[in-house]
Amino acid sequence: MVLAHTSKVVLGCVAFGIFWVLAVFPSVPFMPVGRTAGSLLGAMLMVLFRVISPEDAYAAIDLPIIGLLFGTMVVSIFLERADMFKYLGNLLQWKSRGPKDLLFRVCIVSAIASALFTNDTCCVVLTEFILKVARQNNLPPQPFLLALATSSNIGSAATPIGNPQNLVIAVESGISFGQFLLGVFPAMIVGVLTNAAILLCYFWRYLAVEPADQERGGVVTSHRFTPARMSHVSSLNPDDFDCVSEPIIRSASVNGDLRSRSVNSNSNAAADADMQFSIRSLRSSSMSHEMVEVSTVPVLDGASSRKFTRTASQQRSVIIEDAPPSSPTDDEAAANGDKDKGELPEVVEKRWKVLVWKTAVYLITLGMLIALLMGLNMSWTAITAALVLLALDFTDAQACLEKVSYSLLIFFCGMFITVDGFNKTGIPNTMWELVEPYSRIDSARGVALLGLVILILSNVASNVPTVLLLGTRVAASAAAISPASERKAWLILAYVSTVAGNLTLLGSAANLIVCEQARRAQFFGYNLSFWSHLRFGVPSTIVVTAIGLLIVSSY
Predict the structure, then answer these.
(1) pLDDT tens-digit map of 47-71
(2) What is the pLDDT of residues 301-315, one digit of tens each?
(3) Which site from 163, 349, 368, 540 is most exposed, i.e. has the minimal number of CB atoms within 10 Å?
(4) CB-based contacts of 34: which residues, under 8 Å, 6+ apart?
(5) What b/e sequence results for 22-57 when a residue is b if at least 16 CB atoms lie within 10 Å of its CB, and e otherwise?
């Protein structure tokens, strides 16, 4: 394919360049509009510059991919509501034998979860939990955050629903769910184990915790957390707020404002009841936030109690106040006892309903996976599972649908148009024609060169645009060899473009999610820097990619 007219090429490059800058660097100073607006801007410029017609722009949007993304998002939302990720988090600590065992579990659990529920979802729900576990066990969070991000990326390569670029490949190539799984799963398993081994070697001495340190549990003494935005009450353990049966005797410091009262053991009960204890940590604007949790905790001998109130916001606040003492009479206690007895069947019934609902969610998700393995249409299978879950919820679906990442769906629509317009300039074909003779997959040298091209382009242009730009070209080149080679080329593209996200912090959306979630975590925030990720990401990505190429190319 020859290049288009010079003006079309120049204007198309300008539109694609703006899209690329805003997609890779969504907070650039001159236009901090984000990725979604950047993709729409690129698409609009492609149409305004007449690089692509409005009709072709609409046709460029791949509706099966959008439908598959929407369906998997809804299913993931219901799985989160059904405590699936809570159980995965508990699995990380179940009979753990130490820091190294915990790191290995993070790698395995996050890889499997990402293959089934997408890597972005896995990183969103597990990042703060892993930070909390690291803090409670007096461990540095960096190796565990890197384990979560890198293993999620590697694990998501195993299935078509693991990440967005695999969704594109599965729809464009027509490879069934089962064929995709068989082709990439062995490389994924070996890659995750290799990545875990590199992590253990790299952080071995940081994970060597003395027995005395392990006994201290939640007290962090050997590692300094670097908060990007921590709560003012960072000295308080958030677990203490959920405990309603254990007395708390604590003095707290908030922004240099320390209020403490000492209780004389010889004072009478009336004086104890009148004791006022107040720790307030809030900003001037946080009083308007919605209250989401209130609990009462007994203090000292039970004469008084403290009320804990949490607010839901990015800058959360904790208010600890004394609640007025309550001493119900015998008649009131009897009345409350009778009321509790009367409500007991309702509580049991409610628990059974929740159990049945969770079981239904798990069974429907399992049915969706079985249907995908049977080769049914992936897009409509995911949409059907999502609609069945919405129907069985027996509530207004608005609350659930509001959690869908519509910005991601819109980003994909704009990206489809922008990439299609860039293809019409002829530049991608011209560049591919220069590389194609040397990157044919019928030789080891060709596979290595193809993997290198995908690796570099995935970090320069991001993995999904790379798949859209290279997919059909790589497949057409391999199809000239044999049909089996075409399928192999698609699988190589899927594996390498996914693992390439581990090279740098900006290489994958999952990396950025882990970084942002860790930075904003309340009480135990941590900054995962670009360079700390790069020092581990480069050797890990090169080794895991090389091993995976050997396995996938031999399929």
Answers:
(1) 999 999 999 999 999 888 888 889 8
(2) 434 444 444 443 333
(3) 349
(4) 22, 26, 27, 407
(5) bbbebeeeeeeeebbbbbbbbbebbbebebbeeeeb
